Known about the structure:
By secondary structure, the protein is α/β, with parallel strands linked by helices. The chain folds into 2 domains: 2-48, no CATH class; 60-194, no CATH class. Helix content is 35%, strand content 17%. It has 8 helices and 6 strands; from the N terminus they run H-H-H-H-E-H-H-H-E-E-E-E-H-E. Strands 1-2-3-4-6-5 form a 6-stranded mixed beta sheet. Helix 6 packs antiparallel against helix 7 (116-125).
Amino acid sequence: NFYAHLKENNLNIKLVDCSFNTAGYEMAGTIASGFLLRAGDDDFAIIWIGGGLRSALRQQSTDNLLTTIIAASGIPVEEALLAEALEKAVHFGIAETPLPKRLIKLMNAFNEQNDLMLLFEMKRLFSQYRFRYIIDKNTHLGFLIIQETDGPFVAVANITSGRLDTPYVAKADSFTNETIESFVDSGHIYFVLEAAPR
């Protein structure tokens, strides 16, 4: 269910329980309360979303400040279909080394602060990688594609959606457009491919 899905994504959830801390968030008096009679036996909920999460869910195609920050770091920004961009990246092979923890830490820090200097630091410390920022034409979300400088695919991350903790892992030999759709729908923040055994 929806509540379980929110918990799986490590979101802090507080139910409105008529306590002092949730006063003012009750459904009574809101426009939505007029739909209760029509809802019948169906589930109905109002969700109040904090500013940080609202920012993460904002379509990156309309977030000019974020795009400007990323472009200012020297990371190429382009609008494309994520599936097609990843297909091209994977064409060069799959990197054998995992995403470094220090790089994940820097991307998490950028997610929280949107600080241009963090992107410069990321590029300086990890010059063995090249980065591209793709704004997906289907979802209008932004994804950072990470490849080794000689081509092999390392990972793709939505660096504005939350903490990069547990990756979505897929087998390289079963990589399809549906794999990408499943990743985007899963709520995971970053995606890696597992190379087929030799």
